[in-house]
Fold Prenyl transferase.
Amino acid sequence: MFAQIEKDLKILNINLNKMVGPRHPILYAAAEHLFHAGGKRIRPSIILLVAKATSRKEQLSNEHRRLAEITEIIHTASLLHDDVIDDCSQRRGLGTVNSKFSNKIAVLAGDFLFAQSSWYLANLNNLEVVKIISKIITDFAEGEIQQALASFEASISINNYINKSFHKTASLLAYSCKASAILSQSDQYTQQQFYLYGKHLGLAFQIIDDILDILGTYKNMGKLPGSDLKNGNLTAPLLFALEECPNLYNLIEREFDREGDIEYTIRLIKSTKGIEKAQDLAIENVQASIQALHNLPYTNQSIKNLILLSEKVINRMD
C-alpha cells in the first residue's frame, strides 16, 4: 500500500529531523524521543498519496513534501500535549516525554513544534493553505476543551462525541488532505472530496482507537486497557453500552475510583452491543471516506492505495 511512496517517506524522516533542529538540545531530545517511538507516519503518508493522486503524472512538488512534514510535526506536538493533559506515562510501549523529562519540558516541546510548523507553513507562500492548516491548531485546542468539560459526563450524546473527535483527530486529516489538493491546483469539488475523505477516515481512526481502548492489550496498544475511561473520556463503546446497562452510570458518577472499577466497566461494556455499535459507526465512516474517492471523475494508483488504506483501518479491529 505504501510501496508507491517508500522513498518519499525516507526523505520525510530525514527532513523531519532537520526541521526540528538541534538548536535547543532538551526540546530536540524530547521531540526526537517521540519521533522515534514507533510512529507509522500514517498521516503524512496519506498527504503524500493525495498529492500524487491530484498531480500530473503523480509527481510530488517540494510544497507537497513540506505539507506532509508539517502535518506530522503538528500531530507530534498534539501528542506531547495530550500526554501531559491525560497524565500518560506510556505511549507505543515507551515512556512518554513528560515521564522521561517533565510536564514542563513536554509542554514546551509541544509549543516548540507548533511554532516550527507555523514557520514552515508560512514559507509555503500559499495563503489559502496557511488559513486551513492554522484552523487545525485551533481545532485541537477546542477539542481538548470539549473533552475536559465533558469529563465523566454521562449525558453527552454520540453527536457531541463525534464533534469532539473531529476537532481532536479528524480535523488534521480533513484539512491536510484538502490542502494537498489545493497545492495541486485542483478544482474546489476535488478539494471537497478529499476533505471528506480525510474527515471520515480520521473519525474512523478515532472510533477504532476508542474500541481498542476497551478490547486491546498492553502488548498491542502500548498502554493499559481502559486508559480513556480512567481519564474520564467517555467514548463510543461506553456511550452505546449505557443504552443497555444503567449500572454503568453509577461507575461513571464515582469516576471509577474504586479498585477494579475499570476492569468491571470493561466487562459490562463487552456484555452489551456497545462495541458492535461503535464498530458499525467506524465502518460507516470508512465507507463514507471511500465514497468520497468514488465521487471523483478519475482514478489512478494513488487513489486505489487510499481506498486500500481506508479498508485496512477496519482490519485493525480483527
Remarks:
- Residues 53 and 302 are 5 Å apart (CA to CA).
- The mean pLDDT is 89.
